[in-house]
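Repro:
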Amino acid sequence: MVTRLLPGHLLEYSRNGIQTTRIWFIKNDPINSEESFKFKFKDTFYTVINDYLKYLEENKVGFEVSAGLDSSTILSIARDLNPHEIFYSISSIITPEIDSHTKLGNVDKISDLNNSLNLLPIQHDTSEFWAFKNIEKSLNCEEPNPLLVNFDMYQTIHQKVNTYGITHLFSGEGADEILSSSRNYLFDFFSNMRFSKGLEILNRESVFLKQPMWKLLAAYVVPTFLPKMLKYEYLNKMNTQTWYNLSNNISFIESPPWIIKDNCKIHPSVIEKHRCAVLEPSIKEKGKQFDHEFMSLVSNLNWLDTNVAKPNSVYRLYPFKDKRLIELAFNVEFELKMDLGLNKRGLRETFNNIIPRNILEKPDQSQFEFITRNGINKEWLKVENLIKNSVAADYGWIDKEKLMEAALNYKFGKKENVNALVRTLGLEIWLQNL
């Protein structure tokens, strides 16, 4: 049986065997006002970035720049702390001509950012990359991961970074997990008898998602009132195509339709064991507990570090994953955190004097959907062969026909659970290369 070391734990090996001990707990220091949050957030973030830069003062430093809010904030703080330091920006350029339907062009924004913050640009054209391109390059990866489908792109970027002598690369990953508001907080309003506020937020989210209020109640409020074992049964019963249009997974244990559930059932006690291992005693609100568990248990960053960055002598840095920022974020009172998390208002308003105006007004959007759909169309024969020769199907884990149907639906523009699809195909690439 293969298991992994949970976040915040120490593994020790001795004659007595292997022992794991939890070594990190979040300190309880409640933040109840917007002014207090902004003051502490700014002070803490500047301290975090300054500590990184002092440690790296003898190294060439690069910053992943997407013209998005998260990466731009890190870069803006670093430039404010070091006005004359040489910084490199590493960008994925995508032009409107490549994807005229969604108007994802970010060339002008990245150019403006490089000029306003005096950066040395290193750019690669996204039109040269797409999902499933050159997947044979991923033969030596130690473990499966959904990022395998874009291995060629990540590998090329880090090789280019290495040729410039850059040893450390800052990334904006992790901001969503600690700063965005969560619909899971709906439970806390109802459980604390704050029905008026809960219904107000429920109505707002219903309009935003274009979904009926009963569906949001069923997905985010009802499960949390149920006993633990009954809750998992309830979530599994809701696992039908009807629920996918909520725009995100109801639960991190949700299974897509092509998984053969009779052969792959995860007993609730296993899930509960992992939950209890990372349960944070200082977090009382159910919504924040869920967000913290999700952030702790689900991450692709270690895989990217191990299989792509370090083999190219590049070390990736994630300031938003710094313990000090995580502690601060999870000490914010849940209603305040929800309000500040809407469109990351807390981040925008705290650093509105240093982040370039065009980024604040309209940050760039993720390119994941474009690269994935483009890849499935360009490399359809590879995807089709992956599914036809499925090792997971041979083991009885998945239904090939249902997986093929989902891939075809996605190829032709229908809405599918793209995260689950990419995870399944990433596993398949790894299994077929063993």
